[in-house]
Amino acid sequence: MTQEDLKLKVINAEAKVAKRTAVLKKHREQLAKLIQKGADKFDISIKQSDIESAVDKLEEARQTLANWQAKLDERIAADDYLEANAPEILKDFLESWKQHAIAYYREKRIRFIEYRKELKAQERAARLEALQTLPSLERYREIYKGRELTDSDLANLWPRKDVDAFLSERGLEYHQIQRKLNEFGDQITFRLLEIRDDQEREAWLEKAMEEEKRAKLIDLIGRIMGTVGTITDAAALHIGPEGDINGYIVGTEGKAKIQTIGAGGYNIQCFHFRTLIHEMK
User: Fold this and answer.
1) Residues spanned by the domain of 28
2) Which residue in 44, 15, 4, 11 sits closest to 28, CA to CA?
3) Hey, CA dihedral for 226, 230, 234, 239, is it positive or negative?
4) How many domains does the chain have?
């Protein structure tokens, strides 16, 4: 979650605490009036029970607020850490990765839709072939003679086990298709497919990749500082034409060689890199 997301969580939690506090105050005022009026013990005990429940709910709301506040404080500290310790060239390197990843997932979503259509067409063709060749489906050949068949017609051929066996031999049975789609896709692509609105989808992808960029930057800075201490000079680093970062970096406790190995392609989930940090003696 971003700082803004966490701030909103804190604000909502604060509102919940205020609401629970007001409810508890109301119950206590009602109890005081009952006692003042000389209400019987049963009515008083019910109101005392309401107060105990309200106290528990208020404590739960306060705990939720404390948890979100702690997460917000942690996020602010981490963001301040990055701002203080991350050289601009490392930020540029990971911004380049982010833009590459965004473009990759946009294209991956389109390829997934095309692949799904292709499998659907193959399944339809196989069902037509089954209709035309399987002895157990002969009666359908008479029923549907000269008629253009719908997908619904082909999906309701019986006996279904014969059709499923026919499809399975061709790798086009329902579960086989679902497995192929799951192997072709990934968590981010599936989420993009769920979001129908273009602007909402783009906003979600931007936010997701920004958070991933931040996580990678924290990891990279941590590993560099674990080798050279606080970074003092990153002038010898450079970003190559493939988006890789290489060179030397200097810190309060030494110097290190930075080497990036990138990978990408059809069988790679998304362009990724391994940044190697070699301490120089």
Assistant:
1) 3-82
2) 44
3) positive
4) 1
Residue 34 resides in a domain: yes
Cβ contact 232:82 at 8 Å: no
Distances in Å between the alpha carbon of 252 and those of 65, 70, 85, 92, 226?
39, 31, 12, 23, 11
Is residue 188 one of the residues assigned to a domain? no
CA 217 to chain centre: 18
158-197 in b/e form (b: 16+ CB < 10 A) is eeeeebbebbeeeebbeeebeeeeeeebeebbebbeeeee
Per-residue pLDDT reduced to its tens digit, 185-242:
999 999 999 999 999 999 999 999 999 999 999 999 999 999 999 999 999 999 988 7
Dihedral of the alpha carbons of 111, 114, 120, 123, in degrees to the nearest 10? -70
In a domain, 189, yes or no: no
- For residues 28 and 50, is the Cβ–Cβ distance under 8 A? no
What does the pLDDT read at residue 264? 53
Q: Give 221's contacts (C-beta < 8 A, 6+ positions apart).
A: 81, 82, 85, 86, 90, 231
Q: Who's near 270: CB < 8 A, 6+ residues apart?
A: 101, 104, 105, 108, 186, 188, 264
Residue 27 lies in a domain: yes
CA terminus-to-terminus distance, the chain? 40
CA–CA gap between residue 97 and residue 245 (Å, rounded)? 11
Under a CB-based contact definition with an 8 Å cutoff, are residues 174 and 160 in contact? no
CATH number reported for the structural domain that contains residue 65 in this entry? 1.10.287
Instruction: With beta carbons less than 8 A apart as the criterion, state whether 79 and 211 touch.
Output: no
pTM, two decimal places: 0.80
Element (H, E) at 259: strand 254-263
> Parallel, antiparallel, or unpaired: how do β-strands 231-233 and 245-251 relate?
antiparallel
